[in-house]
Predict the structure.
Amino acid sequence: MATDVQVPALGESITEGTLAQWLKKPGEAVAQDEPIASLETDKVSVEVPSPIAGVLTEQLVKEGDTVAVGAPIARIDEKTSAAAAAPAPAQAAADATTNPAGPSETPALRGDEHAPVALADNDEDHVTTLSPAVRRAVLEYHVDPSKIHGTGKDGRLTKDDVIAAAQAQNAQPSPAIAPQAKTPAPEAKAPSPGPRPSPGDGERREERVKMSRLRQTIAKRLKDAQNTAAMLTTFNDVDMSAVIDARSRYKDLFEKKHGIRLGFMGFFVKACALAAKDVPSVNASLDGDEIVYHDYLDVSIAVSAPKGLVVPVVRNSDRMSFAEIEKTIADFGKRAKEGTLGIEEMQGGTFTISNGGVFGSLLSTPIINPPQSAVLGMHRIEERPVVKDGQIVARPMMYLALSYDHRIIDGREAVTFLVRVKEAIEDPTRLLIDL
């Protein structure tokens, strides 16, 4: 008896997705709730589990196809044995068309980001599917995954495995250059104008990769924000000495008690929560001709993921402790890299914080995340000369940027909010006494 595998509910307002990768092939046995495919939505990648234990007998859609919620994408036969099941002739023909070079060519090495990348395990008779992060690393570093020993669970490849293999590959000298230099071919003796190009010079290659659904959505939302909001940015700088000193004094005790490192983000989330009490419009949103004010602060924290920027939400952050904020953000960062964030974790949010400083950014103008009305941009910390008590001294300084929707927030309110954040960071005691 065959059972259809349907596209699961993908979250509020999401009606379709793209089948990014098949994790199982026709003829392979699957356990109940075992993922058989990966779907890419506007926000995250979602795995599609098998509703029953059996054998995957048919794939009804191809990788890259758009599928609606509830649509069947595969069939599972709970009575068919794995040995008896085999890919349908049409499927085999499709596979041959997809990979005409034969099984020796790994799809990822051709630059197809959405192609299934599989690694044969030499110790066991099965195929291990690469995760999206590892697949992206394979494309980026141009290595053959079948020649890399995986150190992850069950021998799976990790991104660090790919990077280490690429470094080892680059460290190996090329044996072909020296002999060619000693015994040039006869035609190479002909004179030529100018210096001879070194091996590899003159090669001009291009690569076309289709934009992922997530990247397309990011592009659309950011452009809509520019076209819709009356966006303006105000700047300030902040002396990080007090926060750095507090972290230095208490980081060991904090980590011992809470099991998490004390970072900068906890201070900024708390500072924004304090400032939002004085300037509530920064934590508001526009709904038609109405302004919606929130008595809570749900902070969207911009996190870098393999396929683009995602913004999971730290809900009720104004009521959370430093440890709760740091643990939540650390968990978001880890799962963003693994591609396991849930859609519901990225919906909502009343205010955004983006930390470009972790990538070395000195100054930027962040873009509002609609329907929010403001976003705070953090940047790198560097020592700069400043005047303190009439003396020029070096201090660890950070530029702050607040982009805001001028339709809701006046310039005075935006500047006041940023000054309140600055005051709280330069004197963290204010965070304790609500001042």
